[in-house]
Amino acid sequence: MYRSFWIFVILCVGSHADAQSNIEQNQELETVVVTAQYKKTTQEEAVQKIKVIDRKHIDAMAAVNLKDVLTNETNIRIRQDNILGSSMSLQGISGQNIKILIDGIPVIGRLNGDIDISQINLNTIDRIEIVEGPLSVNYGTDALAGTINLISKKNKKEGFSSTLNSYYETVGQYNIDGSVSYKKGFSNVTWSGGRNFFDGWNAFDDFIEFPESRLADSLRFKQWKPKEQYFSRLSYAFKNDKISVTPYLSYFYEKITNRGMPRAPYNETAFDDEYNTWRIDGGFNLKATFKKAHMLNIQAAYNDFKRIKNTFVKDLTNLNQVLSETPGSQDTISFSLLMSRGTWNTNKEEWPLNFQIGYDVSFESSEGRRIEGGTQDLQDLALFGSTEWAIGSSFLLKPAVRMAYNSRYKAPVIPSLNLKYNIKRWVFRASYARGFRAPSLKELYFDFVDINHNIVGNKELNAEFSHNITSDVSFKKTFSSVQLKMDVGFFYNNMDNLITLAISPNDPQQYTYVNIGEYSTIGNTINTGIRYKQININLGVANVGRLNTLSSTYTDVPKYNYSPEIRINSTYRNKKHRFSVAAFYKYNGQRNGFFLSDETVTQSLINDYHLL
Predict the structure, then answer these.
(1) Separation of alpha carbons 231 and 120, rounded Å
(2) SS3 call for 331
(3) What sign has the CA pseudo-torsion 202, 203, 205, 206?
(4) Residue 265, preceding bond cis, omega within 30 degrees?
(5) What is the Cα gyration radius of the chain?
(6) Residue 208 gets which letter from DSSP?
(7) How many Å apart are CA 531 and CA 78, to the nearest integer?
(8) What 3-state DSSP class applies to 97?
C-alpha cells in the first residue's frame, strides 16, 4: 500500500557562503560528474548519460534519505517493507542488480538481495549521480541495472562553518542533524551527526499526533513500524594542486520495533520484535596528479554491517520482557567487506587517445545462524581497462573490458562500448554493455531448515549476466532568458542465468537457488526542462515493459507488461530574498503480472498511484 504524507513543518538553519547569482547560474549550467569518468567533467561532456540530483534539488524536496529523493525519479520504482525497509528497481530490474556507492565505495548489507535505501542519509551528501545500464566494467558485481553514486560535500570556506537542520511530519517523523567543519589552508576537518525518529503510523491515526503515554492495548500495534536512527561521520581532507587524501569514519544505528497484538485469552502478554542494525564504515581516498596529465586514484575501505532480530515475550501489566524460546525467533547476521580499488589514467585534452587501467580487490565474509557452517567468505580480484578515443572534435568512442577471478564462481569477461557524437546543439549517445551479478553468500550458503522452512543454498550457482543496449538524443538551446533542454532515450536489457528460488531438483520437499531464470525489460523515456529567470520546470515521461515469462507457453499472455510513469517538478527561487518554493509530482502507472495457479494463468495487479 502506498500513501502520501503531507509535510507539516520544515526548518533549516545554517551558515553558508554567499555567491553571486551569475556564478550560481554558470554552476547550474556546468554540472560536474565523476562516476566512471577519468576526471571531473561536465554532464554534457561525459560519454555516458549521467543524471545528477544536486543539493538544491535535495533541499527543495526536504529529502532526508535516498528513498525520499528516488521516489520522484522516472524509471525508478520504490517498494516498501515495514521490516526490511525501502528497496528499488531501475529500468524494471530489481534492486539486487543496482550498485549503490558513496564516493565510489560500495554500500553493503543486502537483505533479500536489496539495500535498504531509507538507511542512507543525505546530510553529508552534495549530489547524487545516476547511471542507468551496466557499469560492471568499472564497478563489478551488482552494477547490472545501473549505478547510484552519492558524492559527499566538500567544504571550501576558510575557518569554521556549521549547519543545523530540523524536520517534522504530521505522521510522527522527527529529525534533526547538523555538522561542524573547520578549514585552514590545505586541510579540512568535518564532523556531522543526527537522529531520525518515527513513532509509527496506522490508517486511523489523527492528522496531527504527538507522542504520549498510552495503554498497552490493541493500539500498540502499528501498520508502519516505529523506527529510530542515529548516524555520525568524521572526515579529514588534505588537498593541494597535486595530491588529495581523504580518510573518514562513519557510524549508523537503527532500531525498528514491531509491537504485537495482546495475546488471548487475558491480553496480558504480547510478542514484540526488535530489529537492530549497525553499520561502521572506514576508509580513505588518495588522488594524485603527475606530469603529462597522468592521474592515480586509490580507494580502500572496510565496511561492517550487522543486524540482530530478537523476539520478546512482553508482560503488558508491568512492561517487563524476556527473550522468546520459540525456534527461529532470534537471528543474527553480519557482513563485512574489505576492498581496494585503484586506477591509473591519462587525460590530456590535446591527445586523441587516453586510457585507464585499474584493479578491484574485495574480500567479503558473512556470519549468521542461517549461513552454512556459521561463516563463509568470498574473494574477488579483477583487472579492467578502457580507452577514450576522440575522432575529430565531435566523435568520442570508449571501449572497455573487465576480467576477474572469484573464489566461488566462474566470473565472466565483461566488455562494454560507449559512443558519443556532438553536432551543434545535439548530442547522440549509444552504448552496448554486458553486466553481471555474482551469486551472494546467502544464495550460495543459506541454510534455513526447521518445522516451517526447508531452504538451502546452492554452491554450484553461476553468475547472472545481461546484455544492455541504450541510446539517447539530447538537445539544448537558450533563447534570451529561456533555456530549453530535451532528451529522448531507449533501453533494452536481456538477462540470462537469472538466480531464482525454486524446488530443488534433488528433493521435491526442498527449495534452493538455481540458474533457470530468463528476464528482459524494454522502455523509453522523454525528459524536458525549461528555465526562465528564477523558474525551473521539468517534465519526464517513461514507459517500462517487463517480460512475462509465461508468454512463451501461453498465447493469450502478452510478451511484455508496460507501466507508464510521469514526473513534473517545478521550482521558484528568489535569490534576492533567499527563499524558494517547489512542487514535486510523480504518477506511477499500474503494473500487471501473470502467474500459474493450479495450472491456470492468473493475472495480478498493482494499482496506479500518485505522489505529490
Answers:
(1) 10
(2) strand
(3) positive
(4) yes
(5) 25
(6) S
(7) 28
(8) helix
pLDDT at 8 (0 to 100): 39
Under DSSP, the state recorded for 114 is B
Alpha carbons 448 and 144: distance in angstroms, whole number: 28
Q: How many CB atoms are closer than 10 A to CB 92?
A: 24
Q: Are 471 and 527 a contacting pair, CB within 8 Å?
A: no
Which set of grid coordinates corresponds to residue 14?
545554517
- At CA 36, angle to CA 239 and CA 251, rounded to 5? 60
What's 58's DSSP letter?
Answer: H
Maximal CA-CA distance, the chain: 82
Tell me how far apart the alpha carbons of residues 275 and 256 are, in angstroms, rounded to a whole number.
5
Determine if residue 142 is left, alpha or beta; phi over 0 gives left, psi from -120 to 50 gives alpha, anything else beta: left
**DSSP strand pairing (98-102 vs 146-152):** parallel
The 3-state DSSP class for residue 458 equals: coil
Gap between the Cα atoms of 254 and 339, Å rounded: 24
Q: Which candidate, 156, 227, 231, 147, places its Cα nearest to that of 187?
A: 156
Cell of 541: 515521461
Residue 523: closest CA among 476, 468, 475, 568: 468
Question: At 52, which helix (H) or strand (E)?
Answer: strand 51-54
Nearest CA to 518 among 543, 548, 545? Answer: 548
CB contact set of 598 (below 8 Å; sequence gap of 6+): none
pLDDT of residue 451: 60
Place of cell 538466480: 499
Identify the residue whose cell numbers are 554558470: 26
Check residue 111 and report its DSSP letter: B
The Cα 333–Cα 367 span in angstroms is: 6
CB 528 within 8 A of CB 485: yes
CA–CA distance, 329 with 321 (Å, rounded to integer): 14
**DSSP 8-state symbol, 446:** B
Contact (Cβ atoms closer than 8 angstroms) between residue 69 and residue 128 = yes
- Cα 472 to Cα 312: distance, rounded to the nearest angstrom: 54
Phi, psi of 85 (to 5 degrees): 95, -155
Which of 94, 102, 63, 55 is closest to 78 using CA atoms?
A: 94
- First-to-last alpha carbon distance for the chain, in angstroms, is 16
Secondary structure class of 499 (helix, strand, coil): strand
Q: Cα separation of 201 and 188, whole Å?
A: 42
Q: Are strands 227-239 and 482-503 parallel, antiparallel or unpaired?
A: unpaired
Q: Give per-residue pLDDT as tens, 412-437.
A: 899 999 999 999 899 999 999 998 88
Q: Are 302 and 340 in contact (CB under 8 A)?
A: no
The pLDDT score that the predictor gives to residue 1 is 37
Q: Cell 570508449, residue?
A: 398
Q: What is the mean pLDDT of the chain?
A: 88
Instruction: Return phi, psi of residue 112, to 5°.
Output: 55, 30
Helix H or strand E segment including 57:
helix 55-60
Q: In sequence order, what are the residues at sequence separation of 6 or more whose Cβ sits closer than 8 angstroms to the Cβ of residue 11? A: 165, 166, 167, 168
Which regions of the chain are under pLDDT 50?
1-28
What residues contact residue 378 under an 8 Å CB cut-off, 6+ apart? 363, 364, 365, 406, 407, 408, 438, 441, 444
Residue 329 is which amino acid?
S
- C-beta separation of 302 from 352 below 8 A: no
